[in-house]
Amino acid sequence: MNETPGQRLQTARKAAGLRRQADLAEHLGVSEKTVRNWETDAYPIPATQLALIRKVLPGFDEEDPVERALLQSPLHDWRRKAVSSEYQRHLHEQSREEAAQ
Predict the structure, then answer these.
(1) For residue 59, is pLDDT > 90?
(2) Residue 54 CB partners (closer than 8 Å, separation 6+)
(3) pLDDT value at position 77?
(4) Rg for the chain (alpha carbons), in Å?
(5) What does the alpha-carbon distance between residue 50 and residue 64 come to, in Å, rounded to a whole number?
(6) What are phi and psi of 3, to 5 degrees?
(7) Is the pLDDT of residue 37 over 60?
(8) How far is Cα of residue 31 from the mean position of the Cα atoms in its chain?
(9) How confident is the model at residue 10 (pLDDT cuts 50, 70, 90)?
(10) Number of neighbours of residue 19 by Cβ within 10 angstroms
(11) Angstrom distance (rounded) from CA 81 to CA 23
(12) Count of beta carbons in the 10 Å neighbourhood of residue 66
């Protein structure tokens, strides 16, 4: 039987030495719950995250024809900027919380 995308993500995470979902979440700038939802296939892995996941987890190979189409569309640039902006906001909030402690 073929593995689901979530099972492949979990296998690649563990192979990369990231024991906890929270470890991968930190690398990707998403919540632990998001990684859990991806690994249980509750939600599909967004095409905008696949390139980053491949950088963090070289063993993860999720080829998606929709991703290829999305990456070639003008929407991709807008989405990438939105995700990047959200991640920057997350980092800023995290640094403010650490400074307050």
Answers:
(1) no
(2) 60, 61
(3) 55
(4) 15
(5) 9
(6) -75, 150
(7) yes
(8) 9
(9) very high
(10) 10
(11) 24
(12) 9
DSSP three-state, residue 63: coil
Sign of the Cα torsion 55, 57, 58, 60 reads negative
Q: Is the dihedral of CA 89, 92, 98, 101 positive or negative?
A: negative
Q: Residue 101 has which token pair?
A: 């402690």
Q: How many CB atoms lie within 10 A of CB 4?
A: 12
Domains of the chain with CATH codes: 5-100 (1.10.260)
Cβ–Cβ < 8 Å for 79, 17: no
Residue 86 has pLDDT above 90, yes or no: no
Spatial CA neighbour of 27 closest among 52, 63, 62: 52
**Of how many residues is the chain composed?**
101
- Tell whether the torsion through CA atoms of 6, 58, 12 and 14 is positive or negative: negative
What are the tens digits of pLDDT across the range 69-80? 555 555 555 555
